[in-house]
TrEMBL record:
One of its GO terms (biological process) is proteolysis. The keyword Metal-binding applies. GO terms for molecular function: metalloaminopeptidase activity; zinc ion binding. This is Aspartyl aminopeptidase. CDD domains: M18_DAP. Its cofactor is Zn(2+). Keywords: Aminopeptidase, Hydrolase, Metal-binding, Metalloprotease, Protease, Zinc. Belongs to the peptidase M18 family.
């Protein structure tokens, strides 16, 4: 989600902090006819034992939001995590989360010339989510018996994903590998596509944004798409093109620039690693390699308060927040202490000898080039064509609180919703055979900086993918089919939402203050920074209600709206729905400390997000018939 305006903080500091907001209000339709029914939400995808057998991953992660704030453009923040040095390029792949199934493997039946899973047998009638709600929606067919899914099953896989994938490059790569493991086929925008009904595909752009889609067995051109879209970038500090700086007073420093709202006050005195992608010339080709140096390499030191006014902000992010990455006292001549020259000691800038004159490596800190090369097995520095590296907090994501009811992590905004959406898509495999729609999860880069680049949501990535799908299936009148597809589709714009902070209650709006471990929150804004309206809220609520009672904990949709004296953040929702005409809602998972380098969400919230998104992906087709 996007950042809130500073006025929020002002309101909090000046307001009555003892006035508690009312308990979160759940969205409910008094005349809802949705019923509890069978879904694949609880279907096991992979056993926990399998999960435990996976290699230990380094930890990384990153998230961000955009804040619509008072600015015309969105502002984004990042959070960082630590990766594992043992896992380099490719990075560890976060496994798809599978529910435990205390159910014996199904006995295959020989039908239609081959062994098949037994036909679905619904053993119990769908039960209404509430006694007064009649059961009308038909159950989504499932292939196996299901047990009630526990949202807690998703906690550790989520924290592992966050720790192992600290940069946008690692996160997208990990998602791609998880999709491939589930049978998704990789597509390239540069090639012709050969799509089939029942097929599952994904395509990335720039290695920093990704769209995954599954085509229902009964899909026809013009049918709708159920889309969950979010952003997978996060606030960070990126290395400048020439990151080698002059040494100052014996310190080796690194030239970095903030991405979105990074290098804010939360970046002082943190243990920072370095990661990203490196372009290397190999056998006449330029290949991309991902790299993580996940030990504390860099640090931005505070000035002790003893220095008085000099220690008080605001601070200059160009001159006073330059990370230190090493020591070089080779210029120390013993006179500095008495003459004070140490304070002026600043060596001449000169290119590194690595890679030879004119080489990219020569413009970067020599010891950093060596460290990166060591990780990637590069012996000829001149083969490094270029790189995009960034800083990230190496502290692993972890659970916390007396009963581990929190998750503390960097980059939650918005790898949280992105990760949950992918898990939901993977979980929905079993019901694809009865679907007549397309299911899409789109993860965009650059949301925190306005989404304007080609891999951002304002680019043509999503429309281009949808158009190519429709074109593949349309026998004639492609434009007509495309227009109908958009009109029959629905978009859940999923970005993290501000959870209520008990120390700043008056910064929040009464009855619109989402809590942790309850469920995603629908975010509304009267000035159209969000896409939410009555119809879209009703549609999503109907989808979630349809699976009420089928899990150990139902996700309860909460509501969030910013106070009139604050400004709402922004998401990818308005730009995507405006570009395509697709109906949309903004609904994200709550978190504390948005845009801090270290944020908090609930331990059950990743799983509750998975449940809500899965209900949408699987239920939208039936629910939408009520609105036509
Ligand atoms: Zn966000």
């Amino acid at each position: 989600m996007t950042k809130n305006h500073p006025s929020l903080r002002k309101a909090a500091s000046n307001a009555d902090l003892y006035a508690n907001p009312s308990p979160p209000q759940q969205l409910r339709h008094s005349h809802s006819t949705l019923a509890r029914s069978h879904t694949t939400a609880a279907l096991p995808r992979r056993s926990l034992a399998d999960w435990d057998k996976r290699p230990q991953m380094g930890e990384k992660g990153r998230a961000r939001h955009s804040y619509a704030a008072p600015y015309p453009n969105l502002i984004e923040d990042d959070e960082d995590f630590r990766p594992n040095r043992q896992q380099q390029s490719p990075p560890p792949v976060p496994p798809k989360i599978l529910e435990e199934v205390p159910v014996p493997a199904p006995i295959l039946e020989f039908r239609d010339g081959e062994y098949r899973l037994p036909a679905c047998k619904i053993t119990s009638k769908p039960v209404p989510s509430h006694p007064w709600l009649p059961a009308q929606l038909p159950p989504v067919p499932v292939r196996r018996e299901k047990v009630k899914a526990d949202p807690g099953r998703y906690t550790k896989p989520f924290t592992d994903f966050m720790t192992a994938n600290p940069t946008v490059f690692h996160a997208v790569d990990a998602v791609a590998k998880d999709l491939e493991q589930d049978g998704y086929n990789k597509l390239s925008e540069r090639d012709a596509w050969d799509l089939k009904a029942g097929g599952k595909y994904y395509v990335d752009r720039n290695g920093t944004s990704l769209i995954a889609f599954a085509i229902g067995d009964n899909y026809k051109a013009g049918n709708g798409a159920a889309i969950v879209a979010g952003h997978i970038d996060a606030l960070t500090a990126k290395l400048k093109p020439i990151s080698k700086l002059r040494n100052k007073a014996g310190y080796l420093q690194l030239g970095v620039a903030p991405y979105a709202g990074a290098l804010n006050d939360t970046w002082w005195d943190r243990d920072l690693g370095i990661g990203g992608r490196v372009l290397v010339k190999e056998h006449g080709k330029i290949v991309t390699k991902l790299v993580k140096l996940d030990w504390p390499i860099a640090r931005i030191p505070t000035l002790a308060p003893h220095f008085g006014a000099a220690a008080n902000g605001p601070f200059n992010r160009e001159t006073q927040m330059v990370p230190i990455v090493g020591l070089d006292n080779s210029d120390f001549n013993g006179l500095n202490a008495s003459t004070g020259r140490a304070l002026e000691c600043e060596g001449e800038w000169k290119a590194s000898p690595l890679g030879g004159e004119g080489a990219f490596a020569a413009t970067q800190p020599e010891r950093l080039v060596k460290a990166i090369s060591s990780e990637l097995g590069i012996t000829d520095y001149s083969t490094i064509v270029n790189w995009e590296l960034e800083l990230f907090d190496v502290q692993p994501a972890t659970t916390g609180g007396l009963d581990r009811e929190f998750i503390f992590a960097g980059r939650i905004d918005d790898k949280l919703c992105s990760w949950a959406a992918i898990q939901a898509l993977l979980n929905s495999d079993a019901s694809l055979s009865t679907s007549s729609q397309i299911r899409v999860v789109a993860l965009f880069d650059d949301e925190e900086v306005g989404s304007l680049l080609r891999q951002g949501a304002r680019g043509n990535f999503l429309p281009s993918v949808v158009e190519r799908i429709v074109e593949e299936f349309a026998e004639s009148k492609v434009k007509n089919s495309l227009a109908r597809t958009y009109a029959n589709s629905f978009l859940v714009s999923s970005d993290v939402i501000h959870a209520v902070n008990p120390n700043f209650l008056n910064a929040y709006l009464e009855n619109h203050s989402p809590r942790l471990n309850i469920g995603p929150a629908v975010s509304a804004d009267s000035n159209a920074h969000m896409t939410t309206d009555a119809v879209s809220t009703a549609i999503l609520q109907r989808c979630v209600d349809a699976d009420a009672g089928t899990r150990k904990q139902d996700p309860k949709l909460q509501v969030f709206q910013i106070r009139n004296d604050s400004r709402s953040g922004g998401t990818v929702g308005p730009m995507l729905s405006a570009a395509t005409g697709i109906r949309a809602i903004d609904c994200g998972i709550p978190q504390l400390s948005m845009h801090s380098i270290r944020a908090t969400t609930g331990s059950q919230d990743p799983g509750l997000g998975v449940f809500a998104f899965q209900s949408f992906l699987e239920r939208f087709e039936e629910v939408d018939k009520e609105f036509k």
